[in-house]
Design goal:
Length: 1174
């Protein structure tokens, strides 16, 4: 019985809380619904979730402290919340993160100097999201993951799966390895805990555990045969169980604590038998010592501080052993990371106390994954923590490519023999990351980008038919200091063209692209230390070269080299058929009145740019400029900006087709004679524009130049409504909505807001009932599953479609008076997919036609009248965004692999054309612009900078413009107003709404006045045009979701005579709230377009300028109908009218008669000055 009275060495271990200066402060941590600890640490770094959605991680040195900037470098890991993370035991810079897939990252030895978004490896198996992951304790580069009910082992060096099994007990909530690495303990959501031996593929022990389906954790107690679990009982009281494998069904120790809602995170140190219990949401961290006999758990000194968001233990190699620090707990709070040191009191801290620090596991593994699977169980050598032995050190072994063994592959046939086949058990759909998928083009492009970014390019052979093509040697890598990479001589570097810097606004197509073979993307790879800009950059005027050619020899050589280097990794850039250019706008060539030439052909664009550079104006234009205006292109310098302005205006006028142009403007670009056919074509264009005045008014032309902004919407103003129109006291707004969902939608009658918590609750609020919501139960639609996306029916304000993670689409009908209580009975349930749904979109013209995308890489169209699948499209990758064209014929989709595709669903299942979108893999958004001529894509580049990209809808191979905005984890959600051609952009968690005018000339995106809100918003949704108040010059109206309110937001244009109807701001608009056909009619080939209406109220008068323009345009049409060829219309300005002139003269005479006019000068009174001198 002597052991009962034996005092523990760690009995008096006390927590020591540092001062605020020694903590990591001023960080933003949200509330994440995950089964992970939200923070992890190695001997060199600590990583933790930041921001509201938790998709990014902050990686800091383990001893870092102080205030942190909001612009500090981050690890942009996933597009969704990072569920779990873990550092390798044998590499302090190797970090694994889990979300929808598992990624392995290498943290440089010096830490993150800039944001990181390119992983070393990506491991995916097309199951649900990864809930937990752990590195093997004795084997290097062996990673275990748990996704849904599947437990998988990965060989990270080969990036292949070596074992997988599926449990019968549901979702795996926790995973832990025995210290010798032979067995793993799993705890599932169905109240079961079991022990798995992967090498024998056996479940050695299984039993019932905690009786609540809430979160649970499991941890192995060192080398012993006991495990410890934490969870909840049936009364939702927190429990701690200790079980012995020899009597697994009966808990050896059962401890009931309290009834708090946060799960207890168990942190166990096998060297000291110290156990720490940190509850999520608790302010206390308990310390207990685990013993071999009763009472098994001996409580120590508790720590009380801030509310806990996550916690982890620091490895022993990072402890301050000379201060008797036996353990250190990193506590993650809402705004800080607190290092809590547990110190054992000693009289002196000069010497090393060996009794407190036994030898611990080192950082060198003797077994690789293949040897371990074959039965090898070599233990990890122990090391001493005594500083005098000099065995404690940080371990940095370079990137994963440096760790991975390099096998010698003689041919492509032997390549498959290098990777071992995975061992699988009880699973049919699990697939390796190297298994061949249907999207070979996407994978080849991704592999090509990764190969160009590595330090040494491995020479591989890519099979192409019966021939083997060897990629050419790429450009030499240039470091930040300007030095050459290994293997590159100075002579080769001098002879190689230098890469040019990436332009911030790519407003023109590269003129050298004619030299590139069709079907391939020509890109310029940039090396060196690129740092993203932290704010939007204004548009800068393009520079006109002095030489006649549009591209220098150096640029052409770079384009040629990059084009040849991309031959082995192609992306399907099949251009759209010729009829798309006319059909995508809702116009058909069968109608003779709508015939318009294609002015956006690639060759024409190149000729226009080259012609502009080689342009020499006629003498009459030089005379108009003035004596100092020499516009000859061979001049070495220009003394005035007037010449540049004149030349630029001439070019802008020449590009404004099909408007009639003068002779000099027509010659400035094309420089070709005008034939009779061209005259007839111009007559048809003139008549078609005059017949459809609304289309002519709506046609976006270039309204801003480099010399001055002249856009009508340049000074648009966003104004929030009065507080009496707010919907207040909106509680528990969800912060964990899917990254593919906009998170907030509205129509003219009501709004839909997703709420946090389980059950997939969607709150419905009526817009005609503003004010403070009661504190009772919020009226919600209970979907019983996690909401992935939702959208209101555009033709029925009562119906809303909700896509869930179980693959179903629930159709709800809101009662006429609004939702008064929670309901869980949907009107209809559609089993759309077998995997979770990403996006849900209604057709813009046809009623009862719904489009869905899913994790199963398909796009499906559903006829809701018959509740059957009408069309299935092949995406070959996960579609994260889609948008219908304004004419309702074409569907644009963006995949997770940054591929933008355009489909004609009624023509076939494969895309008509494909192109490259933003370089990042964190999602995207799409919107059609300028009557379907362009597609605006928002996303991220490789350094997580938010980008806006403009693509031609019939040629997706090369972006027309690319604008970098800023660095933020939230994706930009676009909305396009067709009448004003205004693009609104914002993201969840932003406070700024960015606005651009989309035009059909470079730079294609003209920045307007951005609107800044007083608070952060969680969502933004726009109403249709019938909700706009034209009497206050309101051209767009939106609803903004803040933390606790729904606020109306009005966008207006300042006008002096606001009491008059502004025809130039309000053209005839489409009736988007009425259907034009049924789903059956659309599926049969019908293409009925929307009608247009005028927004002018009956009690408002038109502005005088618009009335005069109408009179003039009517008379001009009558006169031009008798002319053989159109000419420039001669319009009489309002102030040149004789009646107006007569009134002006009368006013001048009356004013001058009342004023005293002194015609004498001051010098007349002076003497001594001659009049000649004056």
């Amino acid at each position: 019985m002597a052991w009962r009275f034996k005092a523990s060495k760690f009995k008096n271990a006390a927590p020591i809380v540092p001062k605020p200066e020694a903590c990591v402060r001023d960080i933003c941590v949200g509330s994440y619904q995950t089964y992970g600890n939200n923070i992890a640490a190695s001997a060199a770094f600590m990583a933790f979730n930041v921001d509201h959605n938790g998709s990014s991680l902050a990686v800091l040195p383990i001893d870092d402290c102080g205030r942190k900037s909001k612009t500090m470098p981050l690890l942009h890991a996933h597009s969704d919340t990072v569920t779990d993370m873990d550092f390798s035991n044998f590499h302090d810079g190797l970090l694994a993160t889990g979300s929808q897939e598992c990624k392995v990252w290498h943290i440089p030895e010096e830490g993150l100097e800039e944001s990181l978004c390119n992983p070393e490896a990506t491991l995916t198996h097309r199951q649900r999201r990864i809930e937990c992951l752990r590195w093997h304790p004795t084997v290097d580069c062996l990673l275990s993951t748990a996704s849904s009910a599947t437990f998988i082992l990965w060989d990270v060096t080969q990036q292949s799966e070596i074992y997988s099994t599926t449990t019968e007990y549901g979702l795996i909530q926790s995973l832990c390895w025995k210290e010798d690495g032979r067995q793993a303990a799993l705890h599932t959501k169905d109240k079961m805990v079991y022990i798995v031996d992967p090498r024998t593929d056996q479940v050695t022990n299984v039993t019932d555990s905690h009786q609540s389906i809430k979160d649970s954790r499991v941890v192995w107690l060192g080398h012993s045969t006991r495990i410890l679990t934490t969870g909840f009982d049936s009364a939702r009281q927190r429990e701690v169980y200790i079980r012995d494998l020899r009597n697994f069904s009966v808990p050896e120790k059962a401890l009931v604590l309290d009834s708090s809602t946060g799960i207890l995170i168990p942190l166990y140190d096998s060297d000291t038998c110290m156990l720490f219990l940190a509850g999520k949401g608790d302010t206390t961290i308990s310390y207990l010592e685990v013993t071999d006999r009763e009472p098994f758990l001996v409580e120590g000194i508790r720590h009380t501080g801030e509310q806990t968001k996550g916690a982890c233990l620091v490895p022993k190699r990072a402890l301050n052993v000379m201060q008797a620090e036996v353990n250190r707990v990193l506590q993650l709070t809402s705004n800080s990371v607190v290092p809590i040191m547990y110190q054992v009191p000693r009289k002196s801290y000069r010497d090393f106390h060996s009794e407190l620090f036994p030898n611990t596991s080192g950082c060198e593994s003797k077994v690789n994954p293949t040897q371990w699977m074959q039965g090898s169980d070599l233990p990890v050598p122990k090391i001493s923590l005594n500083p005098a032995d000099k065995q404690v050190k940080q371990v940095h072994r370079g990137s994963l490519s440096d760790i991975r063994p390099a096998p010698t592959v003689s041919s492509t046939a032997d390549l498959s023999a290098v990777t071992a086949k995975p061992f699988r058990s009880c699973i049919t759909n699990t697939r390796s990351v190297f298994e061949k998928d249907q999207n070979e083009t996407n994978e080849s492009a991704k592999n090509k980008r990764n190969s160009l970014e590595t330090k040494e390019i491995d020479l591989i052979k890519i099979q192409n038919g019966n021939e083997c093509v060897t990629p050419p040697k790429p450009l030499p890598r240039i470091s930040r200091t300007g030095s050459m990479s290994d293997g590159t001589t100075q002579q080769e570097l001098d002879n190689t063209p230098k890469p040019v810097a990436r332009p911030r606004t790519n407003s023109m197509q590269p003129p050298g692209q004619n030299n590139v073979q069709p079907g391939f993307i020509c890109s310029i790879n940039i090396s060196g230390g690129y740092k993203p800009r932290l704010g939007p950059k204004p548009f800068t005027p393009p520079k006109f070269n002095e030489s006649g050619g549009g591209v220098t020899d150096n640029d052409a050589s770079i384009l040629h080299i990059n084009a040849s280097s991309t031959l082995t990794s192609t992306v399907n850039t099949t251009t759209l058929p010729a009829p798309l250019r006319d059909i995508v706008n809702g116009n058909d060539k069968s109608s003779p009145e709508l015939v318009q030439p294609d002015h956006n052909d690639n060759n024409d664009q190149i000729q226009e740019v080259v012609g502009m550079r080689d342009y020499t104006p006629p003498p009459e234009e030089i005379e108009d400029v003035g004596a100092g205006g020499d516009l000859i292109r061979g001049a070495e310098a220009r003394a005035s900006i007037a010449e540049r302005r004149k030349m630029y205006e001439n070019r802008s006028l020449s590009l404004q087709a099909p408007a009639p142009t003068s002779l000099s403007a027509a010659q400035s670009v094309k420089m070709r004679p005008v034939s009779k056919d061209d005259d007839q074509l111009q007559v048809q264009q003139q008549r078609s524009i005059q017949v459809k005045t609304s289309a002519a008014t709506n046609a976006p032309k270039r309204t801003s130049t480099v010399f001055g902004e002249v856009s009508k919407y340049r000074h648009l103003k966003g104004t929030p409504a009065h507080k009496s129109q707010f919907i207040e006291n909106v509680r528990n707004v969800s912060r964990q909505i899917s990254g593919e969902c906009d998170g907030f939608h509205c129509n003219s009658d009501r709004v839909a807001v997703p709420l946090g918590g389980a059950g997939g609750k969607l709150a419905i609020f009526e817009l005609n009932k503003p004010g403070k919501l009661p504190d009772g139960v919020t009226p919600t639609l209970v979907n019983a599953n996690t909401i992935m996306d939702f959208q209101w029916d555009p033709f029925d304000n009562r119906r809303i479609a909700v896509g869930c993670d179980d693959g179903t689409v629930k159709l709800w009908l809101v009662p006429e008076g609004g939702l008064t209580e929670p309901t869980n009975n949907p009107h209809e349930v559609l089993q759309a997919h077998t995997e979770k749904i990403y996006c849900v979109k209604w057709h813009p013209l046809a009623a009862d036609l719904l489009t869905t995308t899913s994790y199963d890489t398909t796009i499906r169209l559903w006829d809701l009248n018959t509740m059957t699948q009408a069309i299935k499209l092949n995406a070959y990758d996960q579609v994260v965004a889609m948008a219908w064209s304004p004419c309702g014929r074409y569907l644009a989709a963006a995949t997770r692999g940054s591929i933008v595709s355009v489909y004609d669903p009624r023509m076939g299942a494969d895309p008509l054309g494909q192109g490259k979108g933003p370089g990042g893999t964190r999602g995207a958004r799409l919107v059609w612009a300028v009557e379907g001529q362009y597609i605006v894509v928002t996303g991220f580049d490789k350094v997580s900078e938010r980008q806006i990209m403009v693509l031609k809808s019939d040629d997706l191979s090369t972006p027309l413009a690319t604008v970098g905005l800023d660095v933020s984890p939230a994706i930009l959600i676009p909305f396009y107003d067709e009448d004003s051609s205004t693009l609104f952009l914002t993201g969840r968690g932003d406070s700024t709404i960015y606005t651009y005018e989309v035009c059909n000339e470079p730079p294609y995106l003209n920045p307007l006045s951005h609107h800044r809100c007083s608070t952060l918003h969680q969502g933004l949704s726009f109403l249709n045009k019938k909700c706009c108040d034209v009497s206050s010059v309101e051209f767009a109206k939106a609803l903004r979701l803040a933390n606790t309110t729904v606020e109306p937001l009005s966008f207006t244009v300042p006008r002096i005579k606001s009491d008059l109807f502004q025809d130039d701001l309000f053209p005839e608009t489409k009736v988007t709230w009425e259907k034009t056909m049924t789903s059956a009619e659309w599926l049969s080939g019908c293409n009925t377009q929307q009608r247009r209406i005028c927004l002018k109220p009956e009690n408002m008068d038109r502005s005088p300028a618009s009335q005069q323009n109408q009179t003039i345009s009517g008379s001009t049409q009558h006169k031009e109908s008798n002319k053989p060829s159109p000419g420039p219309p001669t319009t009489r300005l309002p102030w040149s009218d004789p009646v107006v002139k007569h009134k002006q003269e009368q006013i001048q005479k009356s004013v001058s008669s009342k004023l005293e006019i002194n015609l004498k000068l001051e010098q007349d009174k002076m003497e001594g000055v001659d009049e000649g001198e004056w």
